[in-house]
Amino acid sequence: MIKDIALAGAGTMGTSMALIFAEKGYHVTVVYRHEATGIKSKEQIYTALETKIAEGQLDQKDKDAILKKLTYTKDLGSFAACDLVVESIAEDLTIKSVYWKQISDLAREDAILATNTSGLSITKLATAVSHPERFVGMHWFNPPHLIPLIEVIKGEKTSEATAKQVYDLSLSLGKKPIMVHKDAKGFIANRLQLAVLREAIHIVENGIGSFKDVDDCMKYGLGFRYACLGPFEVTDLGGLDVFHNVAKYLYADLSADQQPQPLFNKLVAESKLGVKSQEGFYDYHKGKDKEAIKNRDAKFMAQSKLLASFEKGND
């Protein structure tokens, strides 16, 4: 049974995961490397709890109980006492592999080892791990406290028992896990996300629509549907014959680019990386960056409440 969890990394993802686990009653040890990172993580958790108190979601007693579940340390020896390690460090195969080689030798042989990666091969990472049958992917989505999905990814040597334990753990957090049965690049979510992005950029580059046109199409058309229904459900409801007829003439006209397009390359080369650099496809100067994050989170929270109410009504 999983009770004690160690999180490797105290960045944005690790901090959010720490709070989620602690709120659900798990004992959490956050292992960080740089002092400034640890301090920032603690401050972010404290602020998040204060916000929840202000919004009436928690009281002071709840806050104190949650904080007692959290421990911060630089001591790698802490991994020896945990039931589960979840790593969320740099998204780099070499960096993660070196780290896991060290950590898997410190952790108990029966401890489950999970990596939070957006698409790196679980099978390749597992080659750095002793007893690879206990190694699994656990892909959270940013912001973790608002996005319910978690991908549980099996590597070639991941045991069924390991994958099921992480899947069940995700359910205990109130998340909506899916099982990725084959260790394919990008898993499920990023394969779908990048397929959409590729076609979206293709549409703009070819003058079919603007950035805003494409975004509005997703928000008020396709995304409106996909918030409630998956693509197979949409097709069933619309009729496979209808979609099949469209596919016969449209598939050949869709982007088949094998590398990022010139527009994408140009923006990255100019360090126009989005909100974090205050310019990407859109401009985020003059406070628009903070406003974009605030609006995103508000919409996600409203959507989460709405979906939860629907599910409760269907029980």
Overall pLDDT level: 95
User: Which radius of gyration do the C-alpha atoms yield?
Assistant: 21 Å
Q: What is the percent of helical residues? A: 40-55%
Overall shape: it is globular
- Which structural class do the helices and strands define? alpha/beta
Q: How many β-strand runs?
A: 8
The SSE order reads EHEHHEEHEHEEHEHHHHHH
Reported for the largest beta sheet, the result is: 8 strands, mixed
Our estimate of the beta-strand percent is 5-15%
Helical stretch count?
12
Report the end-to-end length measured between terminal Cα atoms: 28 Å
Query: Which ranges are low-confidence, i.e. pLDDT below 50, for 5 or more consecutive residues?
Result: none
Name the strands of the widest sheet in spatial order: 3-2-1-4-5-6-7-8
Structure description:
With 315 residues, this protein is an alpha/beta fold. 25% of the residues are buried. The protein has helices spanning 12-23, 35-54, 60-68, 93-106, 122-126, 160-172, 189-205, 211-226, 231-238, 240-250, 262-269, 288-314; strands at residues 4-8, 27-31, 70-73, 84-87, 112-115, 135-140, 149-153, 176-180. The longest helix is centred in the last third of the chain and has 27 residues, at 288-314. Strands 3-2-1-4-5-6-7-8 form an eight-stranded mixed β-sheet. It is built from twelve helices and eight strands.
What would a concise description of this structure say?
The protein has 315 residues and is an alpha/beta fold. It is 51% helix and 12% strand. The chain contains 12 helices and 8 strands.
